[in-house]
Amino acid sequence: MMPRQKKDFLLNPVVIIIIVIIAVISVFNFYQNTTKINQIETQISEIETQIAKEKAKNEKLEKQIKNSDDNEYIEEIAREKLGLVKPGEKLLIPVESENKNENQEKDKNDKKN
Prior knowledge:
The protein contains four helices and no strands. By secondary structure, it is mostly helical. Residues 94-113 are annotated as: Disordered. The chain crosses the membrane at residues 9-31.
């Protein structure tokens, strides 16, 4: 008689409902955890990318610090950033030709008409 009672117990609707509820809760929790893991992995990869960028920037700054005493580096910065020239040198500033500006204005006027 024992095996029959166990079988009847497992077929009881209350037991089946409890098992289904537990299964649904488990699936829901698994889905939530999977979503959280994916979000965290995305954040980790974004942070790793940011770290790599900052390391490259840091290396560049360290290189600039090391070169700050180098006369060639100082001269390069003075030329590029400050527009300075050595005595006797001429500074050339590129200027667009007037013909090019006139042609651009004509093209604009032609497009309007």
